[in-house]
Amino acid sequence: MSAAKVYNVESHGIKQNLAAYRAVPLSTRQIVAAIVALSIFSFLYLGFAQKHALLFYIMTGLIAVYILFVYTSGIAAVLYMVVREYPEDCDEKSSVDSREFEESKI
User: Which pTM was predicted?
Assistant: First the structure.
C-alpha cells in the first residue's frame, strides 16, 4: 500500500474511497517535501547559479536529465501497455453478449 492514506466514508450506506478524489497518489507530507525541494533548487538556481558558470551548467544539466527521464518513462509506459498481453475475458456470458453485439452490428 502506498504512503497515501486511504479513507473510507459511508454515505447513504455506500462506501466511498476518498483516495480516488486526490489529484496525485501522494501523501501531504510527500507533496510538501517536493515543494520545499523545488523551492530550494529554484533559490540556488536563481541566486547562485547565474553567477557561477560551473554551478549553472550542473543545475541546468540536472533539469535536462529530469526532463529526459520523464519523457522516457512516459514512452516506456505506453510501449509496455501496447506490448503487454492482457488476459482473455473468462466470463462466458460477457463473451456471448459481445459476440451477439458484434453480429448485430453486421
Answer: 0.52
